[in-house]
Write a structure and sequence with these properties.
Elements: E1 6-11, H1 22-37, E2 39-47, H2 51-59, E3 64-69, H3 78-92, E4 96-100, H4 103-115, E5 120-124, E6 126-129, E7 135-141, E8 146-150, E9 158-162, E10 179-182, E11 214-218, H5 225-238, E12 241-244, H6 246-250, E13 271-275, H7 281-284, E14 292-297, H8 303-307, E15 310-313, H9 316-332
Parallel strand pairs: 1-2, 1-4, 2-3, 3-10, 4-9, 5-9, 11-12, 11-13, 13-14, 14-15
Antiparallel strand pairs: 6-7, 7-8
Helix pairs in contact: 3-4, 5-9
The structure holds flavin-adenine dinucleotide (FAD).
Length: about 325
């Protein structure tokens, strides 16, 4: 008997498409993983009038897209979406299901895993395959103090939610071809226990650090909370966001949302400016996708300096102040 093709599914969370790129990031990672186990990358899309997203997912690497398109699915319903996913998975038996760790994914994925009687690793910050072809799911545990590497040897599918920004999306290719499997809405779905009365789109949020093209990141070498505030001025002038190391956040020089590292934000800026940061592995794990790094440190041998494209041996605060002065001068002239 011919062996069945294995598949890796990525759940299509297309709400806020332009801000929330996690589905595209997962399709990219799924494509790498699929090569290792000779599997097919599939996307799953539920909703109404969703062909635009089907095309997007094919352009970003999906070889097959399962689509259920029906007016009842126009807005997200936990009852209906979970029931649909359960049936689809029981019918097609995917090897792996990946879901973005958005507020939506965090509600949806655990319910699906319970229905399928399988495990789920939540909030992963890494995915790989081991020699046995099992998905190695890396996730912070015990309050972020350890990174656990988790496998699901006995149950299928292997399921994970993954933090936005962990992987980089691949550029779209609108020439790419993919199979579209249209799955009709089953007649005997459960009744939706929640009735949507109205909905309103939130005003666009400020830029998130995970999506920022420029990130100005500061560490303990900035010296004080007052000096650290200079980084916010620099980031504002550059149209970027501020990131921070753990000691900085613990000292309350920066908000917790600014924390960059293995267990927290993974950033992928075009330019990262790093001030007074030693470059501990727990921090650099969050910046591996930065395109170009400029680091300032008093110590030329700091790990951060070795990792940088441009390393400036100097006082971090003095360089930051000089950058601000020069940029303001150029803006004025
Ligand atoms: C389980 C665990 C998880 C962790 N997770 C994270 C995480 O997610 N993110 C994270 O950031 N950290 C994390 N950490 C902490 C991490 O190990 C480091 O301690 C931390 O990243 C160091 O921060 P830092 O570079 O700001 O400080 P330091 O290591 O103290 O480095 C300060 C740097 O500033 C330089 N410096 C000093 N004065 C100046 C000056 N005037 N001008 C220029 N340079 C100067 C020094 O040479 C030094 O290189 C974690 C640790 C553990 C144990």
């Amino acid at each position: 008997m011919a062996e069945k093709t294995r598949s890796i599914w990525v759940f299509g969370d297309y709400r806020n498409y332009f801000q929330n790129r996690v589905t595209l990031q997962l399709l990219s990672r799924a494509t790498d993983l699929a090569q290792k186990i000779d599997a097919e990358v599939c996307a799953v899309v539920f909703g109404h009038e969703v062909d635009e997203w089907v095309g997007e997912y094919i352009a970003h690497g999906a070889k097959k897209v399962f689509v259920t398109d029906h007016p009842m699915l126009k807005s997200y319903s936990t009852d209906l979406y979970v029931a649909l996913m359960e049936r689809l998975a029981l019918t097609y038996d995917p090897e792996i299901i990946l879901v973005g760790a958005t507020s939506f994914g965090r509600e949806f994925a655990p319910r699906v895993s319970k229905r399928l009687k399988t495990g789920l690793t939540a909030d992963c910050v890494g995915l790989d395959m081991n020699e046995e072809g099992l998905l190695v799911q890396t996730a912070p545990a015990f309050g972020g103090n350890v990174l656990a590497r988790i496998v699901t040897p006995g149950r299928r599918p292997q399921m994970a939610t993954v933090r936005p920004g962990t992987f980089q999306e691949i550029p779209h290719n609108y020439e790419a071809a993919g199979e579209i499997v249209r799955v009709p809405l089953p007649a005997n779905l459960p009744r939706d226990r929640v009735r949507l009365i109205s909905s309103e789109r939130q005003p666009p949020r400020e830029q998130k650090i995970e999506d920022a093209a420029v990130v100005v990141c500061g560490g303990r070498g900035m010296g004080s909370r007052k000096k650290f505030r200079n980084l916010y001025d620099l980031a504002r002038i550059l149209g970027g966001e501020v990131g921070a190391t753990r000691p900085v956040v613990y000292s309350k020089w920066a908000e917790e949302e600014a924390l960059v590292g293995q267990a927290d934000k993974h950033i992928q800026p075009k330019v990262l400016l790093s001030f007074g940061i030693s470059g501990a592995i727990q921090h650099t794990a969050g910046i591996t996708n930065a395109d170009f790094i400029i680091a300032v440190n008093k110590n030329p041998n700091a790990a951060m300096m070795k990792m940088a494209d441009v390393a400036i041996v100097a006082d971090a605060n003095q360089v930051c102040t000089a950058f601000i002065r020069e940029l303001k001068r150029r803006i004025r002239s």
